[in-house]
Amino acid sequence: MAIQVGDRIPETTFIKATPDGPQPVDSNSFFGGRTVALFSVPGAFTPTCSARHLPGFVEKADEFKAKGVDEIACTAVNDAFVLGAWSESASANDKVTMLADGNGDFAKAVGLTMDGAKFGMGTRGQRFSMLVRDGVVEQLNVEEPGAFNVSSADYMLERL
User: Fold this and answer.
1) Which of 14, 22, 145, 148 is the most buried (most CB within 10 A)?
2) Going by C-beta distance under 8 Å and a sequence separation of 6 or more, which residues neighbour residue 132?
3) 73 close to 88: Cβ distance less than 8 angstroms
């Protein structure tokens, strides 16, 4: 069953690219005591993700901060090196924190996986966004397959 509004973020470990190499990020520590706008993409460097999803959050980062969001984070079932390169190429480094879910543990734990096998991508995370306040999901926006509407930065900002 998929995570719902009011549920706690499950305990998992993401990996973040840093200048000192890949570093683990504990979900409880990352989401605890603050407000995080998290969005998930099926894959870094994929068309919609690169052309619209990530750029929207990069462009609107200051508006999120003005509405009380402490951090914007992106997750994908990619490794930390790929997410680090994507962040650099999109000029997102100081606006969006990239949280690699390389094995799909987070996507599985929140019940929001998708089968991308027909595209050679295997199991991935669905496209979604969520507002997490002190580890609890306050807003959850899951896209229909192939769509890009309710997980966008604009959609989320309108509901803050």
Assistant:
1) 14
2) 9, 31, 35, 36, 37, 38, 138
3) no
- Tell me if residue 74 is catalytic: no
Q: Which residue in this structure is represented by tokens 């969006």?
A: 96
Predicted TM-score of the model (pTM): 0.93
C-beta neighbour count of 85 within 10 angstroms: 16
pLDDT of residue 107: 96
Separation between Cα atoms, residue 54 and residue 47, nearest integer Å: 11
- Kindly name the residue from 36, 38, 44, 49 that is annotated as catalytic: 49
Instruction: Report the run of H or E that residue 2 belongs to, with start and end.
Output: none
Q: Looking at residue 84, what is its pLDDT?
A: 94
Q: What is the spatial distance between Cα 39 and Cα 60, in angstroms, rounded to a whole number? A: 13
Q: What is the pLDDT of residue 80?
A: 95
CB 31 within 8 A of CB 132: yes
Pick the CATH number of 13-158 from 3.30.565.10, 3.40.30.10, 3.40.50.1820, 3.40.1050.10: 3.40.30.10
Rounded to the nearest angstrom, the gap between the alpha carbon of residue 114 and the centroid of all alpha carbons in its chain is 15
